[in-house]
Design a protein that fits this description.
- With about 475 residues, the chain is mostly beta strands.
- Helix content is about 5%, strand content about 45%.
- The chain has two helices and 41 strands.
- It has a seven-stranded antiparallel beta sheet with strand order 1-2-3-6-7-10-11, with no helix packed on it. The chain has a six-stranded antiparallel beta sheet with strand order 22-32-23-30-25-26, with no helix packed on it.
- The longest helix is centred in the last third of the chain and has 9 residues.
């Protein structure tokens, strides 16, 4: 435990700080010592204050740290952990062949100890009443070490705060406490990975918003400017991935101009006119976001025709490297007749089940399947994360729902993700019932002419739900 304040280094750190390196010293008010913070941003190892810092590495090191029976005068070795039991303490140091540590015993005798030590080698100081024991461990071992209460655990995959350890293979676990020293025990998990193959999907058509006559009177109105630009979906307080627009156009229209981000489709009187990916770059080729589309006269059957536009917003680049002010949704819409359209907007897609009729336009299909997970895989004694593997699916685009909660979006060719994590808090144990997987597919191959052929094609999809790994828990 420490509470530090910065030390004024206006006159310098007292040692040379190399180019592309940083050094800070902070005073510890609780332990009456100082701490050095040394950082090297060079691609080669660098020496600061007599300490070798590896490339792109950092060390936090004690200065004049008084312990029970010894004092760390200066150190090139980092402290990993400290255990204490009355007048006895054990300090674990991370060994380092390039550095050393200067120690002082209770009589004031100083010694320099090399950091090139065998794993778990020790050095003890005893003033007759108090004991300080230093144990050296390499960084590789420290990376796999856990401190629980007043005990260290070495070799476990991970440890819960309750003290339960987890392993996914045969492991020899070493523990250390001041009372019992080092102890070893063999742990062998018995549980195999669970693999679930999902076939024979139920297929429904969804998105009734496409169909002619759908009641959208309760949707929000969208401001349509004189230059035919529209107020984007964010400014309309619609932040969904999927955004619907509906309105009316006359029979006189023969061509429309449109800009939308990022994927969109246009439907007239329930029939698809266009389905387009409108990424700025698609497979490294720039895509013109502005598009002009001719409307076949057979689609405009009435004096006043219903137009529906569905836009899928793909969000922002990682780290928001693109312009966070870039509008989303339907941005520009103009007909060759310059009609002003009373646009209505609403977010989200409906995943209501509808029977398959041959007169329906199956552009958004809902695939549904169920699976069970044995209770043991979701118990407190097991950590067995499940994933949905979409690698073998023929879809170009799909949105994934687990127990009616959206967990991911699959876009082939434009996204590297093919496996989707199924959060355990969204899953049901077998004793609680079935897990329902729903996948909304927004595409239809032009080779498939019949609605029923399309349904048969979707029914025969094969997906896998399986564990990434399985870790079993044991009591120490």
């Amino acid at each position: 435990m420490c509470e530090t304040e910065p030390v004024d280094l206006a006159s310098g750190a007292g040692f040379e700080v190399c180019e592309n390196c940083f050094a800070k010293i902070r005073e510890d008010k609780i332990n009456s010592c100082k701490w050095e913070f040394l950082r090297n941003l060079n691609h080669l190892e660098t020496y600061m204050d007599g300490v070798c810092i590896d490339a792109y590495d950092m060390k936090i090191l004690p200065l004049n740290l008084k312990l029970k029976a010894a004092e760390i005068v200066k150190s090139g070795l980092e402290i990993f952990a400290r255990l204490e039991d009355g007048d006895v303490e054990t300090v674990f140091l991370i060994s380092d062949v390039k550095n050393s540590i200067k120690l002082k015993d209770a009589d004031g005798l100083e010694m320099v100890v090399s950091g090139d030590r065998e794993p778990f080698s020790s050095l003890e100081f005893n003033d007759g009443n108090k004991v300080t024991n230093f144990i050296f461990i390499p960084r590789k071992i420290s990376n796999d070490a856990w401190k629980i209460d007043n005990k260290l655990v070495f070799g476990a995959s991970f440890v819960y705060p309750s003290g339960k350890i987890f392993c996914n293979s045969l492991r020899k676990i070493k523990t250390y406490s001041i009372e019992n020293g080092f102890e070893e025990r063999l742990y062998e998990p018995k549980l195999d990975k669970k693999k679930i193959k999902l076939t024979d999907f139920d297929v429904y058509f969804t998105a009734p918003e496409i169909e002619e006559g759908f009641d959208y009177s309760g949707w929000k109105s969208v401001h349509h400017n004189d230059d035919f630009t529209l107020c984007d979906s964010f400014c309309s307080d619609v932040y969904s991935e999927f955004v619907w627009y509906k309105g009316k156009i006359s029979q006189k229209v023969t061509e429309i101009s449109i800009t939308a981000r990022h994927i969109f489709a246009i439907y007239i009187n329930g029939r698809e006119l266009l389905n387009r990916n409108s990424y700025k770059y698609d497979n490294l080729c720039q895509v013109d976001e502005h598009l002009s589309v001719l409307i076949p006269s057979e689609l405009l059957e009435k004096h006043e025709n219903e137009i529906t536009i569905l836009v899928q917003n793909l969000g922002f680049d990682k780290g928001f490297t693109n312009d966070i002010g870039t509008p989303r949704g339907l941005i520009y819409f103009k007909t060759d007749t310059n009609e002003k359209i009373d646009w209505k907007i609403r977010g989200r897609i409906s995943i209501d089940k509808r029977p398959v009729n041959d007169n329906q336009a199956p552009y958004l299909a809902l695939l549904e399947n169920s699976f069970e997970i044995p209770d043991i895989y979701l118990s407190d004694d097991v950590f067995a994360p499940f994933v949905l593997d979409m690698n073998k699916t023929p879809f170009r685009r799909a949105t994934i729902f687990l127990n009616d909660i959206k967990i991911g979006r699959f876009i082939r060719n434009n996204s590297p993700q093919e496996k989707f994590y199924l959060p355990p808090h969204f899953l049901k144990k077998q004793s609680e019932g079935q897990n329902i997987l729903k996948i909304v597919v927004w595409e239809k191959s032009h080779r498939i002419k019949s609605v029923f052929d399309y349904k048969n094609y979707l029914e025969n999809i094969i997906l896998k739900v399986e564990n990434y790994k399985v870790w079993e828990g044991f009591n120490l």
